[in-house]
Amino acid sequence: MQNLTNKTALITGGSKGIGYGIAAALLAEGMKVAITSRSQKAADEAASELAKIGKGEIIGIEADVRNFDSQQNAVNQVLDKWGQLDLLVANAGIGHFASVEDMTMEQWHETIDTNLTGVFYSIKAGLDGLKQSKGYFITISSLAGTNFFANGSAYNASKFGVTGFSQAAMLDLRKHNIRVTTIMPGSVATYFNNHQPNDADAWKIQIEDLGQMVVDLMQMHPRTLPSKIEVRPTMPPGA
């Protein structure tokens, strides 16, 4: 089992939801973690809460995955502060759901630019650091990355893209001893699509479950790579 103490991570979109859950799990293992948000205020507030875990170090960075220079700046801040990048989690994502006829150009581009192009920008910005550390690149896709549904044209396209991109990147980057995994969750209890987590979400995947999954991947012997992981609630309503 790999010791994670003092290893470093950058998590995009880490101020809430899945990214927040992953950050909490890594901090509990003694890692140094940077989370990003498009709002410095949101990043700082989340970092302040995460700091209460009391093991690793945490910083919040304002960054927008839709802008490559912004992503490069986030990576540079991690390298300047801690000198290495061991894990990059491309988690930032949004969802616009509408029929093709009702989907606006702005909604389409925001979805694709955030969910797909943002993943590409993230690995391009972090690649040199991950090469140096022989690190790990984890993308957060979705079961919507293999299962299409009505009103999901933009979201399905983005997540199908993330799934395919991640698997191709895995083949490209393993020669550098960089491991690549995409995690594909089903229903998760988060704030996604303006949802407010509540007691009725008890059946859903919880953010701490995905945090534990990332820890398990990091601790796995590097000779073994779960390259694509589908994650479902055990007992959804009506099952």
TrEMBL record:
> Which Pfam families does UniProt cross-reference here?
adh_short
- GO annotations under biological process? monocarboxylic acid metabolic process
Cross-referenced SMART domains: PKS_KR (SM00822)
* InterPro entries tied to this protein: KR_dom, NAD(P)-bd_dom_sf, Sc_DH/Rdtase_CS, SDR, SDR_fam
Instruction: Cite the SUPFAM superfamilies for this sequence.
Output: NAD(P)-binding Rossmann-fold domains
- Record-linked PROSITE patterns: ADH_SHORT
Q: Where are the transmembrane segments?
A: none
Which residue numbers delimit the Ketoreductase domain? 7-189
Similarity comment: family membership: Belongs to the short-chain dehydrogenases/reductases (SDR) family.
Q: What's this protein's name?
A: Ketoreductase domain-containing protein
Q: Which organism is it from?
A: Belliella pelovolcani
